[in-house]
Amino acid sequence: MMTLAALALLAAGPALAAGNCADASTQGAANACAARELAAADARLNATYNQVVGRLKAEPEARAALLEAQRAWIRFRDGECAFATVNARGGSVAPFLDARCQTRMTEARLQQLQDYLSCGEGEMDCPVPAGR
């Protein structure tokens, strides 16, 4: 079963391939563009998350803690964006606003995970071993 975001991406077509949602001429096109931006941010987040997991191969406790943190973060992101966009629920702009909120939060989480990948050797407040 396709998700609403996937359907929106298909509907957007190549016209919004550059991802500039300001150029969308209809709400549907803007919604699709925002969904595509979210998908791209989510792909970057997943790639970075997998890099962090890779560094934690020898650290099962840290890996489990990261998994729980990521699950909690997803619940928080979804709940926060549902709250932030509550006044638009049921309207045609709701998917756009929700996707934009989720994209902003996903990019912030991406930065957090990237920071973990930049830890120096011996940093006690960093659970991810320094890269080799």
From TrEMBL:
Q: Does the keyword Transmembrane apply?
A: no
Provide an example Pfam family for this protein.
Answer: LprI
Please state the span of the N-terminal signal peptide per the UniProt entry: 1-17
Instruction: Report keywords, A-Z.
Output: Signal
Q: Tell me where in this chain the Lysozyme inhibitor LprI-like N-terminal domain is found.
A: 21-113
Cross-referenced PANTHER family: PERIPLASMIC PROTEIN, PERIPLASMIC PROTEIN-RELATED
The protein, known as: DUF1311 domain-containing protein
